[in-house]
Amino acid sequence: MNRTAYRIALLLLLSWTFACEARSPNQPHAAASEPSIRWPIPEGWKHETFALPPEFAPTLPYQGTEDLRFMPGFSSPTAPDFWSYDLVWWLDQPPAFQATSLAQSLTTYFRGLSTAVGGSKYHFDPARYRTVLTPVPASEPSRLTGQVFTYDPFATGQPITLNVEAELRSCPGTKQVAIMVALSPKDTTDSVWKALRATAGTLVCH
Predict the structure, then answer these.
(1) Secondary structure, 3-state, the chain
(2) CA dist., res. 196 & res. 145, Å (int)
(3) CB < 8 Å & 24+ apart, contacts of 183-189
(4) Using alpha carbons only, how large is the chain's radius of gyration in Å?
(5) Which residue positions in the chain have pLDDT lower than 50?
(6) pTM for the whole thing?
(7) Cα torsion for 184, 200, 167, 13, to the nearest 10°?
(8) Burial (CB count <10 Å: 0-12, 13-18, 19+), residue 150
(9) Is residue 94 exposed (0-12), middle (13-18) or buried (19+ Cβ within 10 Å)?
(10) Pairwise CA distance, residues 7 & 12, whole Å
């Protein structure tokens, strides 16, 4: 595994399991967004913060910060909340928020993540990576829903399809824009989504 892939794997796999246990569940990562922005960490959930674009997806067309909230069973294939999490992209400039543009960004993101973390261990078919999104009519703030077709590069190396709910929020006080994304392989009627939506709803953007 090359240096960059090793670093990514260490950050995104080992730290999900161990590093966050050393931090209070109510304290944000030191690199979190500006103080006027708040996003509580649910008890038992893991969390991480990274700069955008991430090392594994340098062509992602965003500048800012990524905050993540992982459900307790995220890394366990047998857990009901496997691969279930929320992320926010805090962006310095307003992005294009259409189904096509965000789908391209998510495809780039997950292709890079899978390749960097699991590319040396598993065979991934490049043709699998794609995202299909559709706008939610008359939604305010603007919302998109759909699916990401990718792989689990951490535990199984197997194909995984993530259901997606994405929302665009404006933060005029900080002159930022937030893209909130909830993801899970579970159907959106599953109880996992109640927790994902509730956590997404605690984000304060002003």
Answers:
(1) CCHHHHHHHHHHHHHHHCHHHHCCCCCCCCCCCCCCCECCCCCCCEEEEEEECCCCCCCCCCCEEEEEEECCCCCCCCCCCCCCEEEEEEECCCCCCCHHHHHHHHHHHHHHHHHHHHCCCCCCCHHHCEEEEEECCCCCCCEEEEEEEEECCCCCCCEEEEEEEEEEEEECCCCEEEEEEEEECCCCCCCHHHHHHHHHHCCECC
(2) 14
(3) 183/83, 183/84, 183/85, 183/86, 183/87, 183/148, 184/81, 184/83, 184/84, 184/85, 185/82, 185/83, 185/84, 185/160, 185/161, 186/80, 186/81, 186/84, 187/163, 188/145, 188/163
(4) 16
(5) 1-7, 9-11, 13-36
(6) 0.83
(7) -50
(8) buried
(9) exposed
(10) 9
**123: which 2 tokens?**
């065979």
